[in-house]
Each structure stands twice: as C-alpha cells, then as structure tokens.
Specification:
Order of helices and strands: HEEEEEEEEEEEEEEEEEEHEEEEEEEE
Number of strands: 26
Strand content: 35-45%
CATH architecture of the largest domain: Sandwich
Distance between the termini: 133 Å
Helix content: under 10%
Number of domains: 2
CATH topology of the largest domain: Jelly Rolls
CATH class of the largest domain: Mainly Beta
Mean pLDDT: 91
Length: 394
C-alpha cells in the first residue's frame, strides 16, 4: 500500500514537471513578433502628419508593449519631429499606428532619411526593429548656370590685362576666406546684422564657374561664403570686369566689392570701400544693381551711390558684366559696358580712393539693407562668377 502511494506521488510530481515544462515551452514558441516596414513620403510645402503601422505577427489574448524612437540620419531635427515613447497593442489586435510629423519647406534639397527603431518589447519578440522613412523632395529649385548674357572683351584700347581668374579652380594663392559670423572679430553679423555664417565649403567650382551658395541649415541657420584677395592681390586704378549671375529673392544680398589694404591700420570707413556691384533681393529689386563708395569725410561717415535696373529680366537669369573704370580723378560704374554712375575722387577728403584695395566676393543673407528672407525666398541661392579681368593703362 505504501509502495503504491509512493508511486502515485512520484507520478504526480513527474506529471507536474512535464506539463509545466511543456506549458513554458509553448508560451515561448507562441509569443508574437513585432515588425515595422520602411516607407516613402513626399515632403510638401507645409508640415505633414502621417501614420506608420507597427505590426504584430498574430493576435494574442494579452497586451504587448514596446518602446519606439526616431533616429537622425541624413534628415535631422529641421526635417522631422523626433519621438521617443512607449506604445502598446491591446489583446486581439495586430497593429498600432505610430504618428510621425515631417516639416515642409520650399527649398530644393536631396531626398533625406530618418530611422524608426523598435526596442524593449514586452510579451513579444522583435522581428524587424528598424524602418527607414524616406522624405522625397518635391522642390525643383536647383542650380542652373545661365547660357546667355553679356561677354566683355579681352582687351581695351590703351589698356593691358594684368591679371584675371577664369575659376578653373579656387586658387588659394589669390583667394582666402572669411569664416563664421564675424563675432570673433568683434563685429557679429559682419557689421550689418547679417544672418549668415560664412563657411569655405559653400564655395565650389561648377563647369568653370565659381559658385557661392547661400543655404539654410539646421535650426534655420543660414550659411554662405566670402572670398577675398586680402594680402594676396591688390588693385589700384585700371578697369575691373566681373562676369556674374546673381541670386534672387527677399533677403539676398550679393556683393562684388573692395576695401582699402590699410583697413587693419585705419579701420572702416577710413580705409575706403568701393562697391562694384550690390543687389538687395526681392521682387523688382532682383533686377537692380548698385554701385557705391563709402569713406570717412571731415564730418564723419559718407557714401555716394547710383543704381541701374535691367528691364524685363532678373540679374539671376543671365550673365552680366559688372565693371569699374578707375583712375586718379574718378571712378565710373558700368553694367554690360553701359555707364550708369560716376564719382569725382579729386577732393582731398576722397584721397583713400587713390590707394591700394583688395577684392571681395560674397553672398550675405539678411542684414540692415535687404531685411531677412521670408516665405517667398527659395533656398539654396547662388552667385555664379564666370571670370574676373583686371586691366591697367599702358
């Protein structure tokens, strides 16, 4: 009798262990798996909210939960709203929507991507933990090098070309770069409350042209480039021709200009400034060039300028040649060899314009004169410089 009881007891224990093990094994085998699939979505001009489905392989009678976060890749915080949250799939369901937001804009860029990552699952395994969301650019704004426009000659009567740059490369024996916002020089905003930070990488050579690109980056920070011949090339009298196409749009401020070589000794405006070409963008202003001088007179700061509007087209649509003819007595401004402004430099208080100057090429964004960009301004914007020719009298 005792032996039978012992056998029954051992049988019960064995059955409990066997069925418990089978039950635990069955639970592991039947756990559902979570997966998420990559998608593409068109960017648009305004912010867009959409849903990404996170799927369960089979319905179960218990709740499944997990964490999900976004991952910055070629797209960043200016392109989409980042998330890090916990979600759950209720019993009997096989999916849950994840709400995502991408930010629209109106400037051309490459297609961009960010990741959606599933992790830390409860009551489920993870079959596919990463989805890639591709933001498809739908803006057609892109760099176009004009094929038309004025071309200046290689010689003028009584003058010889003594220097030039056709921009087969950015020759750093001729050019250096200003970098940053000017704050390191104690003049944040470069003295004009400009919004851009200058960077070397915004200047490039495209099909034998210097291209200065103004673009908008992370956190609505504008970047551009500023090249100068300071300490490398100096100019005094003669004729300077620059063939270039301008950017366009509210807030754009391209410049082809010169400062006196002695600026570090006497400061601005005592060194003198010659603006061969400036444009303040937006609407009809995209068609107008300005030529100006700035100096320090007996009574303080002074300037004198003139302008010329090209009827029927913007300065971005064709190449134009911006010139000054400069001697001991005067400076004459021309566009496409047509004179539109002149200043007599013989008065004693204009003596700074009989000294050496260096050349500057830049695209500013915003500032006191043009004001900031607005929603009508497409980015990137470009100043395209085909060549520079410098002539002196024989």
């Amino acid at each position: 009798m005792k032996r039978m009881i012992r056998q029954s007891l051992w049988g019960a224990i064995f059955s409990y262990i066997f069925f418990t093990s089978c039950s635990e094994s069955d639970d592991k085998v039947t756990l559902p798996s979570i997966s998420v699939n990559s998608i593409e979505i068109t960017e648009g001009d305004i912010d867009k909210t959409f849903q990404l489905a996170i799927n369960l392989s089979a319905p179960v009678d218990f709740e499944v939960s997990f964490s999900v976060r976004t991952d910055v890749r070629s797209a960043n915080e200016k392109d989409f709203k980042q998330i890090d949250k916990r979600l759950s799939i209720p019993p009997g369901s096989t999916s849950v929507p994840l709400e995502l937001t991408i930010f629209g804009d109106r400037f051309f860029e490459e297609d961009e991507r960010f990741g959606v990552i599933i992790y830390d699952a409860s009551n489920a395994t993870i079959a596919n933990n990463v989805a890639v969301v591709t933001i498809l650019n739908d803006d057609t704004h892109q760099l176009i090098i004009p094929e038309t426009g004025f071309v200046s000659p290689d010689s003028y009567d009584g003058m010889t070309m003594v220097w030039g740059d056709n921009f087969d490369t950015i020759d750093e024996t001729n050019w250096s770069f200003d970098i940053g916002t000017g704050c390191d020089q104690g003049i944040c905003g470069w003295g004009n409350d400009e919004l851009q930070s200058y960077a070397k990488e915004n200047a490039s050579i495209v099909d034998g042209n210097l291209v200065i690109e103004a673009r908008i980056g992370s956190g609505s920070i504008y970047t551009s480039s500023k090249l100068l011949t300071k300490g490398k090339r100096s100019f005094k009298f003669g004729r300077i021709d620059i063939r270039a196409a301008m950017p366009k749009g509210q807030g754009m401020w391209p410049g082809i200009w010169m400062l006196g070589d002695n600026i570090d000794e006497v400061g601005w405006p005592a060194c003198g400034e010659i603006d061969i070409m400036e444009m303040v963008g937006g609407g009809e202003k995209d068609s107008e060039t300005h030529g100006t001088v700035h100096w320090e007179s007996n009574t303080g700061y002074a300037n004198y300028g003139g302008s010329k509007k090209i009827e029927g087209s913007k300065l971005s649509e064709n190449f134009h040649v911006y010139s000054i003819v400069w001697d001991e007595e005067k400076i004459v401004w021309l566009i496409d060899n047509e004179e539109y402004h002149v200043i007599d430099t013989t008065p004693g208080h204009l003596s700074e314009f009989r000294d050496e100057f260096y050349l500057i090429l830049n695209v500013a964004v915003g500032g006191n004169w043009p004001g900031p960009p607005d929603n009508s301004t497409l980015f990137p914007q470009w100043m395209i410089v085909d060549y520079i020719k410098y002539f002196k009298r024989e």
